[in-house]
Structures are given as structure tokens and as C-alpha cells.
Write a sequence for this structure.
């Protein structure tokens, strides 16, 4: 079978392109590559949401970062490593903004 047509591999390639864009592009460039992966049925959704949160944070959009992070930490089935990183970034956001605790790493 031709695996180049497998949507899981295409989505994985998009995820990797989004990671590269985080280093080389602005939030819009990352978003163009990753938002399509954030749907509830996509197997890469948690990693895509996490990457979008980091890209928003890197761009100075704390509210956007928080939106994506909440989509990670409030979802069912999140891998522990992804949840831990998302909660850590939420803790950093809370500390920098002096907002009430939301993350689980405090």
C-alpha cells in the first residue's frame, strides 16, 4: 500500500512543519500548518494544540496561549507528558500575569 496517501502520515508531516515554523515564522505561519490538526478526532490534536500555545506565547499572545493550553489540560486522554508541559506553561503564564493558579504544577 502507498503510505503517502495515509492521512496520519500527512498530518504528522504537517505537525513537523508546524514545529519548524515555530522557530522560523510567526504565529500565523504556525497556525496555517497546525490548526487543521486540532479537531477532537485527530490523533495529533494534543501536540498541535500545545505547539499553537507555545507559538502564541512566543508571539506575546498570552490569551491565545491560554486558550490552546486549556484545550489540552481540560481534554480527556491527554498524554501525561503533554499535560505536564501544558500545565507548566500555564503556571508560567499565571506567574508572569499574577493571575490565580490554573496549572497543576504549582
Amino acid at each position: 500500500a502507498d503510505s503517502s496517501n495515509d492521512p496520519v502520515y500527512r498530518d504528522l508531516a504537517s505537525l513537523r512543519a508546524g514545529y519548524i515554523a515555530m522557530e522560523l515564522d510567526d504565529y500565523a505561519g504556525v497556525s496555517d500548518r497546525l490548526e487543521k490538526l486540532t479537531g477532537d478526532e485527530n490523533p495529533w490534536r494534543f501536540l498541535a494544540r500545545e505547539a499553537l500555545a507555545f507559538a502564541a506565547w512566543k508571539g506575546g499572545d498570552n490569551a491565545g496561549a491560554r486558550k490552546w493550553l486549556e484545550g489540552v489540560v481540560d481534554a480527556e486522554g491527554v498524554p501525561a507528558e503533554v499535560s505536564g508541559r501544558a500545565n507548566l506553561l500555564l503556571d508560567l503564564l499565571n506567574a508572569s500575569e499574577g493571575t490565580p493558579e490554573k496549572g497543576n504544577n504549582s
About this structure: DSSP finds five helices and no strands in the chain. The chain has a mean pLDDT of 90. The CA atoms of residues 38 and 86 lie 15 Å apart.
